[in-house]
Amino acid sequence: MGLTSLLFVPGSTPARFAKALGSDADLICIDLEDAVASESKAAARAAAIGAIGPRVAIRINGVTTDDGMVDLHALAAAPGLPDLVLLPKVESADEIAIARRHLPDAAFVPLIETARGLRLAHHIGQAPGVVAMMFGGGDLSGELGVALAWEPLAVARGLFILACAEAGVPAIDVPWIVLDDATGLADEARRAHAIGFQAKAAIHPAQLEAIHAAMRPSADLVEEARAALAAYEAAGARAIRYQGRMLEAPIIRRYARIINMAKARELT
Fold first, then answer.
1. For a pLDDT cut of 70, what percent of the chain falls above it?
2. How many CA within 13 A on the CB side of residue 164?
3. What's phi and psi for 4, nearest 5 deg?
4. What are phi and psi of 36, to 5 degrees?
5. What is the mean pLDDT of residues 216-232?
6. Helix H segments across 126-197?
7. pTM
8. Where are the beta strands (DSSP E) in the chain?
9. Residue range 235-256, pLDDT digits in tens
């Protein structure tokens, strides 16, 4: 999966869809949940379905809510599916099964936004149809009574990354919500990537440059990975000394992941 950025746009502002698609985001995500008032849900749903096409994801309302069920029925009747369907506040793999009964061919991204969801995240990530999971730090910080910041959520992020690793799915980080703090965004994106996140959500196109700088492998890193893999394979796939350090299986797995990500981006 070559996804490194996901730009959210409210479903209630369809005039912004084209601008979002004109950005460098890997995908845009039309939001039908938190960003849309109750009285605007129907219009936003229709606008989102009308916008389905390349590079479009949709976050529906929770499948345990009336609005979420209407969203699922509307998507099931649509002529095509978005690239991803994001499911908010998932606390059980049963919720994935509900969504999949309506959309058997969809690619789902559950948002883990509660303590219960985090505790069961490894099961949720293993559910059929799940292709990635997203860390919902905003709602989780409210449940914990802490700030939406790195340190208060460090343990939760670590547990989430372990759950994604156990489930074998990529991890997407929560958006940075301070629009005028580019330095803070760059620091958080760098930290997120360092602990295993492969993508980060955004709420404004101006945030994408910092996210991509942190999440996308540089040309130098890709070349380093290719050279190291070639040396390792030439040595019979055994641990070797290479450029002053040891090359062994765990390091090779990381290099292989870097190359796979670069290949995925070349294909998109």
1. 97
2. 25
3. -125, -15
4. -120, 125
5. 75
6. 137-144, 154-167, 182-195
7. 0.87
8. 5-10, 27-31, 56-59, 84-87, 108-112, 133-135, 171-173, 199-202, 240-242, 245-247
9. 777 777 878 788 787 777 777 7
